[in-house]
Fold this protein.
Amino acid sequence: MSCSWIGAVKTAWKTHRLPGIAVGIWNGGDEQYFVFGRQGLFGSPVNPETVYAIASVSKSFIAASAWILAEEKRLDMEVPVSAYLPGFSLYTEEMTREILVKDLFSHYTGLPRHDISVFTGQNESLEETVRRVRYLQPAWPVHTHFGYSNHMFAVASLLVEKISGIPWGEFVSERIFKPLGMKRSYTKTLVFRDVDDNYARPMANVRGFNVPVKPMNTGAYGCSGSLSASVRDLLAWTVTNLHRGVSPGGARLFSEAAAGELHGRKTPIRSGESGSYTPEEVTGQFYGMGWFVEKFRGETLVNHGGTIPGYKSQIGFLPEKDFAFAILTNSSNTSACTALQYHLCDMRLGHPEFDWNRRFLEVQKKMRKEMESNYRRHLTALEAPGDPLGCGGRYRNGAYGEFTVLEKGKKLRMRVEAVPRVYSLAPAAGGYTLLLPSERLAFPCRFERDDEKVKPPKAARLLVKMDPFLNDYIPFDRVGD
């Protein structure tokens, strides 16, 4: 079937205009690799040893690490996180008491994504990231909704450090990378750029052209998204999970019981909760522990994807068919990985040919159109500038960091200190709108004053509606002029 596999990979590469793609396939003991494109615009051709950032695919590694510790009786999954991390605290005391160790890995804590805080907090230490989770507002009660949370996997990374007594990266290297022979994998975010020539450069497709983008430092979030690997290494990890803890070479990393927990159906994902497109061929979506678990055309598919600026990845396996795959690309704004995932599964299941690339390109086009329409809707609601009335100053939120509002005449701008970038704060009905033109995002915001009688008037806090799953505005208290 190798001719068919190579055709599927090449079609995805060409159709989605990817700079480079590397795919590994395991089919009943037959292991093959297919690569196309270059490391960057003009770099060397990619090969099965080329290193890519794997983003959120990293989550499966820290979940397995925790289970290794649990099987050694060093970690109890059924006790509150605070039993191991005394300083750990969430938004309410009730949340802090109810969140058990196992909940860190299953997106069932009641927290929404809080994605902007991930970008504004990328220069913090892992310890500081964990300290700041106490300021993250929940969207739902604990154990009621699926809510994807990079922050909880950061907590899990620190937990592995505290229990094992070594940095989480060392634990992953010693207990997973080395037994699997993953010599082309790294735990420190983007470190491969300094020690390795054979790596894919981060790119994005802009109006049909691949352009370099600035990579993201994900170290503050631990093993939530910091790993990088070659496709050969990543396939070895995926096959180990396919075989319930046993590596392709026969070494056992974790037990069948642990595999059952990692790949089990823990958190149900209702329509709209994942925040991304789900094909009608997919039913019964759940999240396990570091893995999505779903039914694709009636077959169990265990998988996970990852995205950071410049990179996108996807791994998965059909446990009943002894079939696994790993897909790596150096383009973040693409649906190629997900489309190819379902194409490869269709081929293994013997399903008639279906154009998954076309399906996902149409969906991606529709989503971009909706995003553009929403952005323009905010633009049309803008009003003529009024008097800022002392809105300028520095504002801080414990989770999102510091924003500085700059006054220039009747115009306001906002500087995000951690990035650092300056954005427009445009007057709108009922307040202002924070505009991010390159991302085509717009966030309603307003200012509050504690005492209207104070002269000259001065805003006490800035409120920004920054997470789509939160009904409340996120408060930033004034900390200076």
